[in-house]
């Protein structure tokens, strides 16, 4: 049993899976545009700083989109194929919005968080992590931002992906 009081009957999350995924899919598209404009600035006009700005913003949003994809995949019990396609959509320029619209049309973003307060009991490890995140959103947001910032910093330190294996 949990020491946590049950949520009020009218409890609603600030952001549903649909809203979260729609916003991050759009943010990915916007940051792809910034990255591509930065590449044009760098390779077309010799402005090296342009990719560090667009690339940095895109990298951060990319990592947030990956986290959101994993969360929605877990909560909505997507098939492995759908989840992997969601992750791959972040790597292909402008593919996140068509993917998001596809899963929305198929009803895979419907309803509230399954594992949120008052929802189902978590099953496996991924369910337990997501359930904790939905029931303690401030802590989860801080932890997620810290982890994303650490990964982002490590990737920035590693340099552009084109130079990782050269």
Automatic annotation (TrEMBL):
InterPro entries: DUF3817_TM. The chain crosses the membrane at residues 20-41, 53-72, 78-97, 138-158. GO terms for cellular component: plasma membrane. The keyword Transcription regulation does not apply. This is DUF3817 domain-containing protein. It is found in: Cell membrane. Keywords: Cell membrane, Membrane, Transmembrane, Transmembrane helix. The keyword Cell membrane applies. It comes from Dietzia lutea.
């Amino acid at each position: 049993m949990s020491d946590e009081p049950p949520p009020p009957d009218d409890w609603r999350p600030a952001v549903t899976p649909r809203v979260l995924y729609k916003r991050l899919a759009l943010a990915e598209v916007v940051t792809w545009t910034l990255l591509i404009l930065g590449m044009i600035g760098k390779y077309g006009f010799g402005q090296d700083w342009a990719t560090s700005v667009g690339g940095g913003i895109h990298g951060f949003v990319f990592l947030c989109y990956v986290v959101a994809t994993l969360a929605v995949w877990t909560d909505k019990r997507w098939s492995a194929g759908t989840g992997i396609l969601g992750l791959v959509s972040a790597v292909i320029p402008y593919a996140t919005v068509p993917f998001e619209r596809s899963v929305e049309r198929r009803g895979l973003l419907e309803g509230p968080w399954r594992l949120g307060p008052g929802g189902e009991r978590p099953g496996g490890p991924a369910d337990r992590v997501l359930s904790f995140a939905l029931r303690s959103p401030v802590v989860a947001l801080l932890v997620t931002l810290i982890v994303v910032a650490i990964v982002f910093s490590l990737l920035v330190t590693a340099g552009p992906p084109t130079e990782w294996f050269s």
